[in-house]
Amino acid sequence: MILKGKAWKFGDSISTDHIAPGRYFHLRTNLPELAKHVLEDANPDFAAQMSAGDFVVAGRNFGLGSSREHAPRIIKLAGAGSVLASSFARIFFRNSINVGLPVLEVDTSGIDQGDELEVDLEAGTVRNLTKDKTLTFAPLPPVMVKILGDGGLVEHFKKYGDFHLEQGD
Amino acid sequence: MASTLAEKIIAAHVGRDVKPGEIVVTSIDAAALQDGTGPLALQQLEELGMVQAHITNKTVLFIDHAAPSPRKELSNAHMSLREFAAKTGVVLSEINEGVCHQRLVEAFVSPGDILIGADSHTCTSGALAAFSTGMGSTDVGIGIATGKTWLKVPETLLVEISGEFPRGVYAKDLILYLIGEIGADGATYMALEFTGSGASSMSMSERFTLANMAVEAGAKTGLFASDEKTRSWLEAHGRGEDYREIAADKDAAYARRVSIDSSSLEPMISAPHTVDNTRVISEVRGTKLNQVFIGTCTNGRIEDLRIAAEILKGRQRHPGTRLIVTPASRTVYIQAASEGLLEIFAAAGALVTGPGCGACVGVHGGILGDGEVCLATQNRNFQGRMGNAEAFIYLGSPATAAASAITGEITDPREFLK
User: Fold this and answer.
1) CB-CB under 8 Å, B185 with A69
2) H-state helical runs in B313-397
3) FRET pair for B106, CA 20 to 30 Å: which of A74, A89, A134, B208?
4) pLDDT tens, position by position, B206-216
């Protein structure tokens, strides 16, 4: 699967409070409204100005903090194709896979705001078309490839009616 | 095979030895949702046609983040939790009961359990030698419906604690120090295991404070072996029969070891806007404060309130500094009332609230104004955490919070404990 879009660059330690702020707690049952505020405290222009397919590109420990699954859900709902970060916090990473949002651990230091990127999920490459450079990322663990491939954990359960993940399954 | 605490608990559930990195599908013993994450979980179960609960007596839906409800949207979200509980027979923890993590350790989680909770501080129950970890709504919803989850068996970082705390230094200072040392991602995907003479001598309340903040170093859980203190805690909460002895094997393999001598520590502060931005208190003393908040799953227990009351008794908060005190649970609230602590706080100029999470998560009950500065005993100081991205949050112990409320600026509690 090839994803293509523009980079929106964020820094290190972008927390779930940046992604889905607590002051919008009452919108957690209204995700389309909550998505209008996605990453608002890190970049107030992001939600209004991003185009479908654009990438969230960040530094270290993206998504640290709360377990709120709303965070990856509204990044996906806002239209982002994927999140690329130097590293991720664990719960955010797992939630992203569960909701069908591709998350890629890759050295983002050479990517700048507005760079045109092309991500090949199967080949494990990020082509920076603006800078004519190619980065590679480590493949996801097989269990996550399986869930992501099914379209998330709910879709996985619709398909199998149970966990279908362990080696030998 | 010699096992760490995490490996031992998971192995007992899957019926075979496990090693770090391996993926297992395991049974769970307990599951928790709260009012911020619960409605989405229940919506996923409806979509799957799985409005059901595998375990009813240890699946708990907590109404604590917005309790009592400050808005109709949240009142409606609360209704969905009540309906699910009525339909399936799981436990509903109403607006008066308190913060989920405190209620889980008081009444639900036992040594050896696997608990999954849709709240990142679910790791608090690790202090009871339970493998307890935070996950998202969908994971926990499916755990509730099926009684199962998948886990990657974590590597373990062993935190060896020696020595006793000097006066004015507490478990909160130790965990802030540790997070400052290893960083907010220092234990990502790992379990923390606290051990050593300093861990054995700690009260359960102190152990909960350490385990609670394991996730602030990126960890999956923060574990203590069970011992006589664990047994006494369970007995004091009417469930001594739930005690089991669980300890790591002597020659278990640890990915990393960190040693801390408690006697060498000083009061610590996390400065805005990350928990690992730690400072020895002397570096930030004198910082003016608009608000001080004492409470939460990190430091809202009776022992925390006693420490704060010892300092605040007979004194007044600074006129320019608001003070909010929130006991972590109904049980803590009743105990604090019976010991006269709530009266001490109110007399000192504090607003004493009912138990809940509201101020810490920026939902209601203490939201900061633009440019305002707060010192809180909670576990997070991220930008926007207390409801305003233009505000600044410092983290410290209940003693530091109480002393700072009196002076109106960040103050070393040892000045009041001579």
Assistant:
1) no
2) 330-338, 341-347
3) A89
4) 999 999 999 99
